[in-house]
Structures are given as C-alpha cells and as structure tokens.
Amino acid sequence: MILGVVGKPSSGKSSFFKAATMIDVKISPVPFTTIKPNIGFGHVIIDCVEKDFGKKCNPKHGHCKNGKRFVPIKLVDVAGLVPGAHEGRGMGNQFLDDLRQASALIHVVDASGMTDWEGNPTTGHDPAKDVEFLENELDYWFASIVEKILQKIPKIKSKYELLEILKDQLSGLEISESQIENVLEKFSPQKILEFASELRKVSKPIMIAANKIDLTEAQKNFPALKEKFSNIIPTSAEAEITLKKAAEKNLIDYVPGNKFTISGSLDEKQKHALEIIRNKVIDKFGSTGVQDCLNKTVFDFLNYVAVYPVADANKLTDSEGNILPDVFLVSKGTTLKEFAFKIHTTMGEKFIAGIDARTKKKLSADYQLKNNDVVEIAFAK
Q1: CA angle, 147 as apex, 144 and 150 as ends, to 5°?
Q2: Does the predicted model carry a pTM greater than 0.85?
Q3: Which has the closest alpha carbon to 212: 114, 310, 121, 80?
Q4: pLDDT, tens only, 85-129
Q5: 301 close to 207: Cβ distance less than 8 angstroms
Q6: pLDDT tens digit string along 279-291?
Q7: Which residues, in sequence order, are bridge partners of residue 71?
Q8: Contact assessment for residue 93 and residue 74, using Cβ atoms and an 8 Å cutoff
Q9: Domain at 305-379: CATH code
C-alpha cells in the first residue's frame, strides 16, 4: 500500500511528508521545490493486541510504545500540481505518473489562502478552488488513459469482454477488477470523463489536509472548507515536526495524534514555541492532524484491517520465538487463504487451515479476516 502526498506548489506537501516520516527533505516557499518524488515510510498507530494477551511484543518492523503499535506505511511526495498539469504544464506528467501505484491520496491544501494557483505568495485565495482543480486534473489524467485504451481496441462485443480489457490495461494504476466492474454498472466508458471521474474516486480516494491551520487566515477559512468537504482534517505539518523533534530530545512526552506533556528542561524560546502549538493547534483541534490523516485514510477510506500472523497460536511467536512480530494491513474482506498468499506463495499454495489464537478454533480458507485477528496458518511442508 502506498499513499500519495499531493497538492499545488508551496502548499506544505514536503513539510507534511517530513512530519509523517521525519525524513529530511528540501522544504522551501519556492514553487517546484520537489522535482523527483520523495519516498519514505510513516506509520499508522493502532492499539497493539499485546494487551489482550498480557504479553510484550517485539516487532520486526515499526515499533510498539506503551501499547501503541506503529505500523509502517509507504508515502510518496510528488511534484506540485498546477492547473493544466494533465496537458504537461509545470511538472504535470511526471507528477501524475508518480501516482500510479498509490492506493489513496492525501491532498495538502494551503488553508490560509496565502498562495495562488502556482504556489506564489498572495492573499485571499480560496483554498476550496485548489481542491476542485486538483480533482479535475486527476479526472482528465484518468480520462486520457481510458481514451487511449478504447482507441486501441476494436468494437467491444460484451461488457464482460470490456471488463477483461480494462482490468488488464488499468492494473498498473492499482485499480481492482471489482472497482472497474462497479463503475461499469453505473457509467458508460463512452462518456469518458464521467466514467474516468468515477473510476478515480473509487480507486484513489482523497483525504484533504487543510494545512497551515496554525495561521489565523487558515482558521478563518476552515469552517467553510469543512462545510463543503466532509473528507477534510485541519493540519499543521510544521507543528508536528516541532513536536517530534522535541520528543526526540526527550523534552516532551508525545504520541503522534495526541496531546503532549513537558518532561524535560526547556529554555524560554522552547517554552514559547510549544505554548503557541498548544494554544493555536492542540487545544483548538485536538492534534496537529498529521497522524489523523494517515490513520483515517488507511482505516476509514481504504477499509484496511490489522492482522497478526504467528507460527504458534499458543505462544504467539514466529519460528524464531519473537512475540507478535508482524502486523499486516489488508483490505476488509480478505480471506485467510488470500492472506496466506500475501505472506508467502508456498503458504498459499499448500494452505491447510488456520487457527484463531484467541479461541483456538480452526479457521477455513474462506474465513474473512477481522481487525486485530491473530492467526496461525497451517500448510503442507
């Protein structure tokens, strides 16, 4: 699973990416600071099942702190998008190609309205227009791909044949057969833009990060944005970066997505900076919003569930004795046998059955995995 971080130049995309991954990237108010995509790993944070079993886990990937499991997810921060990108303006074509494998997008919007379409300084720009133009650019991009597919094929004899062709040709865009089938039921591909727009909505859902919410102008604009868009979260990437750096220096206790407490010795400048974040962001909105964007995109938009595979359902260990070492994020509705294939091809091909670590009951191949399932998979060796 990959999340794409998108937006116009100077919206705070790279700051959001840094806030999520804590990877040092070039951050500048100059448009097109990002040319090649920045790629890194952030985390979704969940309650670890270790508490359910009264055992301490030792993760192979990510980490666990005070019962909170940090599960890695891949993020790609792409070049800024400007109107006309689908026609090649700005870094348009490169931007769009870099998004092909993304499962969902986080659109970082300058909620303050202090940058124009191109990312240049201004005042009074309507951030809602940025949301609309980006969605339009994505729709036109999808439409150009669908149009090229239809031009290459002879007259389609049946909807099934069309489904098979689209499934094959659109696989590189991370669009599933069921998504294509559902859209075909409602829309004709001959109405290319309408069909492409719906396909984009179901295959690349967008979470809006109303960034720079620490600024007065952004706070004035946010109520209107919230009224217009339900899929929006107020964020301050700069505040998140500051809090994570303070936590690294043991100046504060901080779990992303929550409030913070001071735990170290601060000078006056540090105290002032943290108080501004507390007063302008945390007290008003509950968090900086960065972690909320990641978690809600993965679990609410994509409907993923967290599943813990183990080699021994009694000891909750892998073959090396590590307790609850892995967490997989899989689509809701994934069957146990499909999950076995995700772990290893051989495990899927030689699948016998599963065991629920909680109930010790046998699980069939078509058992649909639930959130926080801990399962052992038996297979022929």
Answers
A1: 155
A2: yes
A3: 114
A4: 666 655 445 667 788 889 999 999 999 999 998 889 999 999 999
A5: yes
A6: 999 999 999 999 9
A7: 44
A8: no
A9: 3.10.20.30
